[in-house]
Amino acid sequence: MAQKKVWVISEQQNLLAELIAGANTLIPGEISIFAAALGNLEAARAAAGAGVQQVYYFKPGDGIPVEAAFCQLARLIRENGGDLVLVGATKRGKTLAALLAAELDSGLATEAKVRDWNEELPATQRLLYGGLAVSTDAFVSGIPIITVPPRTWECPAPAGETSHTSQGGFTEVSVEEGPVRVIERQPRQLSAANLEEAQVVICIGRGVKKREDLAMFEELAGLLEGALACTRPVAEEEGYRWFPEDSYIGISGRKVKPRLYISVGSSGQIQHVVGCRDAGIILGIDKNEDAPIFEASDYGIVGDLYQVVPELIKRIKEVKSR
Predict the structure, then answer these.
(1) In the chain, fewer beta carbons within 10 Å around the N or the C end?
(2) Domain check: are 13 and 150 in the same one?
(3) d(CA 216, CA 196)
(4) Cβ distance 197 to 258 under 8 Å?
(5) What's the predicted TM-score (pTM) here?
(6) In this structure, are 218 and 155 located in the same domain?
(7) pLDDT tens for each residue of 109-126
(8) Are 146 and 66 part of one and the same domain?
(9) Is 161's pLDDT higher than 60?
(10) What percent of the chain has pLDDT over 90?
(11) What is the phi/psi pair of residue 272, to 5°?
(12) How would DSSP label each residue in 13-41?
């Protein structure tokens, strides 16, 4: 197999590092990796020390969204060649991937995993219908473009500290003005928790009766050095809205891959389970023994969360005090 050229693209440092690690595992033999860091200088610097051939740091100007880099990216891919393009599946990344696919007249697989790679083009798999079905897709022409969710691959070393010592080329590119211009920015409430990076995630559902009870779960999260999340109704429905909208786990929300995922007071509908199914261990807590969450759980506790969670907190404190 001839040496392949793989492009990895993201605005997030850890995700860019994951894509570099993933590219090295996808294709047997030697490959050339070209990295594009979108508006993140630290990500670009870290990638340059990760054994890639070339890093492009795309620096957006005032009022120019970094997604406008798709034209310049397409030009660089044509000039340097490319056999595969991996884009981090963030909101910004998915927007750029669609624009890039149109510009290159290429196929695009969204939030997919590479299933196998033949002599020519890869095949991918992705979930459909809330995880009820798996679609296997094959590229037939063009440069394959795939958006990859966070935590699909594990980084071989923490971001910015890599086992590679070689330094790749580094080029700063000023993003050219495109058809879209930013005229105003309004901050929105965001979750303080980095859920994708958390090793322990505690997710609460509508079984929690009132907002004041969140203190109990915050204590549990603190003891486990974990992050607190919720189901979609708790973030969006009238009468709840206890969390920022980017805090809910599910098919249309965040997708996490912690070592331990604790679901409390959530029935566990498939739309929610899709967001946590890759966790190492899932513990479900619900008073309904027939709740779907137990089908997805490695361990389950049937009981009133207002009795179970305080007991968990008590036992954890006892263990930590030894």
Answers:
(1) C
(2) yes
(3) 22
(4) no
(5) 0.76
(6) no
(7) 998 888 777 667 788 888
(8) yes
(9) no
(10) 59
(11) -85, -45
(12) HHHHHHHHHHHHHHSSS-EEEEEEEES-H
Residue 218 lies in a domain: yes
Whether 160 has a pLDDT exceeding 80, the answer reads no
Extended beta strands in 118-267, E state: 122-128, 133-138, 145-148, 169-174, 200-204, 227-230, 260-264
- Tell me the mean pLDDT in the region 169-192: 80
Same domain, yes or no: 207 and 120: no
Tokens of 217: 């779960």
Residue that the structure tokens 């890039």 belong to: 100
CATH code of the domain covering residue 255:
3.40.50.1220
Same-domain status, 35 and 156: yes
> Which of 174, 192, 224 marks a domain boundary?
174
State the residue for tokens 């910015």. Answer: 160
Say yes or no: 100 and 22 in one domain.
yes
Q: Give the pLDDT of residue 287.
A: 95
- Residues contacting residue 173 through CB under 8 Å, at least 6 positions apart: 56, 57, 58, 59, 69, 72
User: 63, 85, 61: which is closest to 73 by C-alpha?
Assistant: 85
14-43 mean pLDDT: 89
The total number of structural domains in the chain stands at 2
Q: Which helix (H) or strand (E) holds 59?
A: strand 54-59
User: Cα-flanking dihedrals φ and ψ of residue 296, to 5°?
Assistant: -95, -5
Q: What is the largest CA-CA distance in the chain?
A: 63
**For the segment 244-256, what is each residue's pLDDT rounded down to a tens digit?**
888 999 988 888 9
The residue behind tokens 């809330």 is 130
Which one has a higher pLDDT value, 281 or 238? 281
Residue 184 forms part of a structural domain: no
Provide the pLDDT confidence category of residue 276 given band limits of 50, 70 and 90: very high
Residue 141 belongs to a domain: yes
Beta bridge partners of 133: 128
Domain containing 12: what range?
Answer: 4-174
Give the model's pLDDT for residue 271: 87
**Of 242, 210, 216, 211, whose CA–CA distance to 229 is shortest?**
242
